[in-house]
Amino acid sequence: MQYETLKLRRQKETDDRPDVIYALLKDYIINGTNIPGERLNIVELADVLKVSLTPVREALIRLTSERLVTSVPNKGFFLKSPLLEELLQLHELATVVLGTCAGKQPQASIRGQMQAWKQQFETMSGQTARLGTDTDLTGTMEALWLAIAALGGNLEFREIIQNFNDRTHFITILEVDDPEIREALSSHLTRLLDAMIEGGSTRDAVHEIFALKTSALPRLVMESLARSFGIAHASGRPFQAASLRPKVA
After folding, report:
1. ∠ at Cα 183 (147, 199), nearest 5°?
2. C-alpha angle with apex 211: 81 to 105, nearest 5 degrees?
3. pLDDT tens, 155-200?
């Protein structure tokens, strides 16, 4: 594996607490240019992070419970492979949670933030997204889902959506990177925010958005695999294509 981005993050964050090591590894797994199916070498990671093996192992166990990492007995930890069936189930669950929470009346402070997000969606419609930044459409969408989940007043709802954001982050990047999908999402998201700010059918708006996202999943999973193959080929790293083939129930 390549650890350049992890090394850079570690240089900025020198705290050795387990939660910090977990956060560094989680960010590296979600945002790094890694290859699905690659083995996560605990010794190498501990060396990069300048910590003992224990906090690294504990962080990987935690990430396994969040379904971001796969644990294979007697073999170790591996980056999760994208499975279409699993992603469809995640989107179905998110649709139910967000559809339920979106009907709650947001407070004035939240409405102000939603108005700003609406303007951002309108501005970015038809533009090229600035991938990998905190101000791009990817980050805004994920922040919106969390804000809607928080309206439900249930911590479990927020945890479900945070996990959804983490496990589908690579798909959201591809959605934003596709001009046609980005244009459609921007329009749908603007209508959702209008409904939440001014009153309207928020549940229908959520279902329209996730119907669009779900319909694009098969193609985007294959595109993700193609990009991973390109990264593997360019860096001379192995790519286990057979084990990464999307599965449908």
Report:
1. 45
2. 110
3. 999 999 999 999 999 999 999 888 899 899 999 999 999 999 887 7
* Residue 240 within any structural domain of the chain: no
Residue 176 exposure: Cα atoms within 13 Å on the Cβ side: 23
Domain that holds residue 212: 84-228
Count CA within 13 A, CB hemisphere, residue 184. Answer: 13
Q: Are 93 and 148 in contact (CB under 8 A)?
A: no
Q: Are 46 and 238 in contact (CB under 8 A)?
A: no
Do 104 and 200 belong to one domain? yes
Tell me: the pLDDT tens digits for 119-140? 888 876 655 544 444 347 888 9
Strands (E), the chain: 39-40, 69-72, 76-79
CB 20 within 8 A of CB 60: no
> Per the domain annotation, does 139 fall within a domain?
yes
Question: Which alpha helices (DSSP H) does 102-178 contain, by range?
Answer: 108-124, 137-151, 155-177
- Distance, in Å, from the CA atom of 4 to the CA atom of 189, rounded to the nearest integer, reads 35
